[in-house]
Request: fold
Amino acid sequence: MSWKRPLRYFYLRFIRLRATPANIARGLAIGVFWGMFPLPGVQMLTAILTAALLRSNKLAAAAGTWLSNPLTAIPLTLFNFEVGRRLLDRPPIEFSGISLRSVDGLLELGSDFAVSYLFGCFIVGAIAAPVFYFLGLPLIESSQRRFAARRAAQRSKKLGKAWMKPQKDTSRMK
Reply:
């Protein structure tokens, strides 16, 4: 099975969301915020629950967590840690020989790493969420307008064809 089909399905579901652009953008921002935290398997659930509590779009919240994925996990981890470390004015930590891909490797780094990392996750998430909201809002509005216009054109085309069909002449039937 190709990856294009499920991706297209998700894209169409996202475009066809019947929520307001602000609700969708808010859900996306919530997902991006929780996507910054190291909660594998729980990020999406946390984002969906938060979106439900804040009456935002849950599908958009789930999609927002995908910002952190296997390809971006290590760069995001290092970036979030570095932001937290610098803001908390902590000394640098040597990463040589320690695997950032395992929980055991991260635990070896100790509490200095954990505090700096979580603080960095919060700060980066708190900055990225509004950025994604304000960038996403006009994009969502325009995509919903395009979708509505395309749908209206398809409906009018169908209606036009229905009017053009020859009608049965029932006046001659006796």
Remarks:
- The radius of gyration is 24 Å.
